[in-house]
Description:
single chain; 1 helix
Amino acid sequence: MTEKFKALKEKGWQEFSYNDHPKCPHCAENFDITQNDAWYLFDENEVHEVDCPSCGQMFRVVSSTTWRFSTDEQGDDDD
């Protein structure tokens, strides 16, 4: 079993912040949302607990959403 939060302590918090995929703070393996059928992680601004399939330890994942809006595709109609 991996030491609790070993990777987080060794690599620093920057390695584990604002990534495209959650990264286990115990073993530093990426947590594949698709492979682990963890779609619930896409809830807006929520804290979730997951079990790492690589090392078996539990860790928290904080998810957040950024919305972006575009109005650049407009019709040429004069209506």
